[in-house]
Amino acid sequence: xxxGFALIGxxxxxxxxxxxxxxxxxxxxxxxxxxNADRAQAIAAKYGAxxxxxxxxxxxxxxxxxxxxxxxxxxxxxxxxxxxxKAGKHLLVEKPLATTVEDAEAIVEAARRAGVMLMxxxxxxxxxxxxxxxxxxRRGDIGRPAYVYARLSNTTAxxxxxxxxxxxxxxxxxxxxxxIDVVRWMLEDEIVRVYAVGRDGIxxxxxxxxxxxxxxxxxxxRGAVAVFEHAWILPRTHATVKDLKLEILGDGGAIYIDASHxxxxxxxxxxxxxxxxxxxxxxxxxxxxxxxxSIAYFVDAVTRGTPVLATGEDGVAxxxxxxxxxxxxxxxxxxxx
Length: 337
Known about the structure:
Layout: E1 3-8, H1 12-23, E2 27-33, H2 37-47, E3 51-53, H3 56-61, E4 67-70, H4 77-86, E5 90-94, H5 101-114, E6 118-121, H6 128-139, E7 145-154, H7 157-162, H8 171-187, E8 191-199, H9 202-205, E9 213-220, E10 225-231, E11 242-250, E12 253-258, E13 267-268, E14 273-274, H10 290-304, H11 312-331, E15 335-336
């Protein structure tokens, strides 16, 4: 069954949605919307969308559009997502669902009232090492999880060059949203208490008004403790744009993941070493791997009625946890959820 899909927000990650839709056999890629007309037109032409526009209302008025990806900047999700739901369009919202609990809950409620599907694009749930870790935990390979250490950080290139709206975001929204979700999903448990610290100054001196890093200690309802560490100040000489580590200690074993790069291929020149990502290439004509797989889950949910990869409620839980981390870092006191 061929179904009409559209994209609202054609930035760097929005382009990944366009790549995915252009490759999926069940997708009629109807429209691309972006406030930048040149960008909208270019992405539509590059990936075969039939239309482009700078007004998302035109997308929602199109009867051929049944489902929409919302990939606008994180803090701007609510208006567009709620309008999509009210127009009867199924929704794939980029993570984080929103940057306030009020906005996240409003999106979930709008989707519920309209009877449309809502999926949050927490694509690390289909990142192979993460998925295998969850299965190992469910099998009991490490016993009962007791302690988790999760780190996902980026070089300064992300906030200073890649994200024009970095001043309205942070490493928490951009990165911790991934790791908080994946740890909740692996442990199948909810966060009940957080204590966090954060510091700023480095990025502000570089012209970006956001926090350099946060470190949070998080307690789960069944007793597990996790430490989340997220920074936007890795040096540009770092071999890869990200540093991703995950350690899970149980009463019967342990899991260690280093997904900073997969080491499948290493390229050494006279100037530097690089580790091209073959699991989810960030650029190029052919998107493959778990990023594509995540968006395919949404297509399958819309066209075949299968479960979404991550629900709106998952999105609210992550937003609530990050808001608590921010509050704790500001006050210096623990926050109960």
